[in-house]
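ingest -> fold -> write
write: protein_1
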Amino acid sequence: MPNLEHPAYPAAKLLQLESSVPCRESQVSLLLSIFGEREQFSFPSIFIYGHRASGKTYVMRTLLNTLELPHVFVNCVEYFTSRLLLEEILIQLQRYSEAEQTSHVPCDTLNDFVRLFKQAVTSGELQYQTLYIVLDRAEQLREMEANILPAFLRLQELTDRNVTVVLLSEIVWELFRPNTGCFEPVTLYFPDYSIGHLQKILSQNHPPLYSADFYSAYINILLGVFYMVCRDLKELQHLAALNFSKYCEPVVRGEANERDTRKLWKNIEPHLKKAMQTVYLREISSSQWERLQCDDGEPGQLKGLSAHTHVELPYYSKFLLIAAYLASYNPVRTDKRFFTKHHGKIRKTNFMKKHEKTSNHLLGPKPFPLDRLLAILYSIVDNRVAPTANIFSQVCEERTGKRQKNCPTASLKSRALPELCQSQGEDFSVIYSCNMKGNDD
């Protein structure tokens, strides 16, 4: 019995949709109930959020294309200004218009967009059914003019047309809401895929030359190795396609059959260890990786760019450790002096003699609140840091196992930071000078 049922759409289309979006049936069913029938007015705006690679963009594209609903799909990273964004929406609307199409639609202001949008929707098939405008990577709207986001949330009211705006983002709605208030959208959360969901999704892509059980066993081995360090569906799909040829080698040579999992595991284990060193890094192309797999040499040792004595940390994880180190050893009163550009006049105080002081490094790291950690992080990173779910998930992982509530990453990692900086091969002398100045206070 199909899980998706809706009287406005054919059962064959719903069955095709259900097979195309595995493990997202509940979210699709909720979206269908919000959309209603084609001629009905849907909710003015919908906000969908979740971590990266949780299926937000894929589900929306598949839903709109399978049910053949009129829609406009725009990536806000590609069209990073309000003018480019509004013009792209109008250009995509031309394919539903009966009039002669033009390649460029000039649109300088939001008033022009509302006027041109009314004209485009009135003619053609759009006047009898709902139009869906999907804005992917919608967090970029916060960088545009202040009236863009409230206008999209109220576009149905401004244009008096049957239109629904869908925002897709990796951050929560509370970080979108303007201070002056706006129309509240319907929020829908896409949770991360569990290991069972990943197993089911990845197993659907089995090659036709091999059985589904054989490929499912390979995916089970792959998830057993990588699930603790990588839960990104796109990255796991890349790893599965890259290493499957090595898993099949004993079968191709006739040394084992598809059910001899022990021999297959022994053959693939060293290659999965190599792949573990380059998860998310993309240091080499797939063709270079295949050539490295064919080279003879010590298994488990990569001859490419990752053949260093260390593995490079992710960008924000490195700065999170540095911020935790500075927060745990520097007093709170020194933050304004070292981490703000215009801190004003500093009042001089009487200091103790150097030989009478005890170094903070001997006393050990001190606990600090999470807000202070994030404030230092934002000040030491050159570019602007968006408070995305990825950063907060890294902070939560650092806090795992700590008993003190307000000590996120203080003790163990901050002691190891000098060795970390030395292994990274980078110059953090400025940070250490700031830290030592802070200790002098």
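write: protein_2
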Amino acid sequence: MAHETHQVDAQQPDELCDIKSVTGEYPAVLGLDIGSLADFRLHIAAYLAKKAANRGMVITVSWHATNPVTGNSFYLSKDNGDVLHSIRRILPGGDHHLNFTKQLDVVAHWLNHLYDSHGKRIPVIFRPFHEMNGNWFWWGTNSRTQNTAHEYILLYRYVVEFLRDRKRIHNVLYAYSPGKLHNHSDYLKFYPGDRYVDVLGMDFYYSDHNTSPNTFSDYIRLVTGYALSKGKMAAITEIGLSDNGINTQRTFWTEKVMNVIKSGNFHHKLAYILTWQNVCSNPGPQCTIFVPYKGHPAEADLLTFYHDGVTVFSGDVPQFYPHIPVIGK
């Protein structure tokens, strides 16, 4: 889903969900991103969260945060500033710690004022600083930032302690989600600890048609195994086929996702899977597509995925918000 602020101000319906256009039903989970924390972005995200809560959906929130040190993009490739030791410089005692706490104040205010249509706070799964084992974000590990795993752990803990303990925000569960691993033993390398994490996840993208489903299966087994041992929920916090691959691999969602989950009996162990957004440039016809839309060549595959007995969409989720008469399923 995507919105402009004028659509929110006019309370226009958000029938921009490609999954609903194909299946007739909303997904069970809505993923939002608060990004740069700009007022318009937070305004839109709050509006969509309220809509989702009214539909009984689970809501996850990621944060592609602006670098507090340079003030530039979350992507290192788009930041020509001094990103060396970015994490160290925003932790307590760092020269840009104040900039970071100002960002966290905005996040706290947004979470603390996230109300449903009945005036109750909306619960969300917050997923800060994901894919920390990659080299593309300022909070990641690479030669430009020289961040360490220990510094990342301190950062994650600081975020949780700031929101949960200092600001007394309790409508949030926290998700941990590395990207693909070099070695399975690296999964817990950046893990902040059981007191700070509620959901153990992983972001997994098939890089091309040749990526083996066995690799995906191995990662699910790894994540669900750790989650079970720690008494946590397990999730695939991002999943998809890169480079608009579903335009040609038209059975991706059944063959490379659903069948892997079914064959490994993982559907009893995963709380949810989340795909990334479909988005098109404006102006221009360039689009990035992860799920089929109405009329897409892979539309029939998504319908097969939808009708399979192991998948759950918004109409089948438990009543998470018993005070809300769920509408629009």
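write: annotation protein_2
The longest strand covers residues 233-241.
Strands lie at 29-33, 58-63, 124-128, 172-176, 199-206, 233-241, 270-275, 279-280, 287-288.
pipeline exit 0
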